[in-house]
Write a structure and sequence with these properties.
The chain has 311 residues and is of the alpha/beta class. It has one domain: Rossmann fold, CATH 3.40.50. It is 39% helix and 15% strand. It contains ten helices and eight strands.
Length: 311
């Protein structure tokens, strides 16, 4: 089903309209704080949360976070979710819908850290904030065998990066990671950066290049913490990667799956025909988004069950 042929197109158009002013911020014509707030507020209105979940705020070792709690939580089950936005925009508030459906599907509490972003706080500050919040989960009483992580776009790349940082620091790994449309290669050197440019209704290569430079500052795009396709990923938990066929980031997601598989990480890659960047955000409005998120939930539940006797 093509999103452009259905009623779901109104949601996509509203998303495009909300994202439009972010270009002015990238070009220095609009203050980033204002651009971020307007974008999050508009997207929260476009994509309301489902029934059956509640929200609260929490401090995770100095990092503010949104907590999403479904009516039913199994044990102390938790999902740590990292929002996208190129490390420069977006925020937990615009993920109430996606996180709400995730929470209900998993019967798990969802934590979304509100990490600091570029250009005010460039690389590696956003990653440091997210890792600090991840570590805080264990101080809060969560245990690895009841924990999974997920994220979209930049947050999708963080799925791999945070596990790498955890492994290096001796912090427990989650049972699984799910990367939705991960921004895994900030060099944008894959063929899809040209062949898909203009097909994806939300993200183009020129904007991605501006986002990358804003985030990276003086760092190289090949730094493994910015582009996990260049990282040592051995020893990580199983990973599911979902990409849309029309994404300019498609080759980066495929390369990330290949990198993980080559280094003996159990990896599942799904490429969804006709889908665009983070189509999952239209869950509840787009059948392909519902099905993709259901696959992500099933992937995580299987790993939670596999690890249920641990600890």
């Amino acid at each position: 089903m093509s999103v452009t042929d259905t009623a779901q197109n109104s949601k996509l158009k509203a998303w495009q309209a909300a994202a439009g002013p972010l270009g002015d911020a990238l070009l220095g014509r609009l203050d980033w704080a204002i651009a971020r707030k307007n974008y999050v507020d508009q997207m929260q209105a476009v994509l309301p949360a489902p029934d059956g979940v509640s929200f609260s705020s929490i401090d995770m070792d100095g990092v503010p976070a949104l907590v999403v709690i479904p009516d039913t939580v199994v044990g102390n089950r938790a999902l740590f979710y990292m929002h996208g936005g190129g490390y420069v925009h977006g925020g937990p508030g615009m993920y109430r819908a996606l996180a709400g459906y995730y929470a209900k599907g998993l019967s798990a509490t969802v934590y979304i850290p509100d990490y600091r972003q570029a250009p005010e706080f460039p690389f590696p500050t956003p990653i440091e904030d997210v890792f600090k919040a991840y570590r805080a989960l264990f101080a809060m009483g969560h245990r690895a065998h009841e924990l999974a992580i997920s994220g979209d776009s930049a947050g999708g790349a963080l799925v791999v990066t945070i596990m790498r940082w955890a492994k290096r620091a001796g912090v427990p790994l989650p049972v699984a990671g799910v990367a939705l449309s991960p921004w895994a290669d900030l060099t944008h050197s894959g063929l899809s950066a040209k062949s898909r440019d203009g097909l994806d209704p939300l993200v183009g290569t020129q904007v991605l290049n501006l986002l990358a430079r804003t985030f990276l500052g003086k760092e190289l795009a090949t730094h493994p913490d910015a582009s996990p396709v260049y990282a040592d990923v051995r020893g990580l938990a199983p990973v599911l990667i979902q990409m849309g066929e029309n994404e300019v980031m498609l080759d980066g997601g495929i390369a990330l799956a290949s990198r993980l598989a080559e280094q003996r990480v159990r990896t599942t890659l799904e490429v969804w025909p006709g889908m665009f960047h983070v189509w999952h955000s239209l869950v509840g409005h787009l059948p392909e988004a519902d099905e993709a998120l259901a696959n992500a939930v099933a992937f995580i539940l299987k790993e939670l069950d596999r690890n249920s006797q641990v600890g």
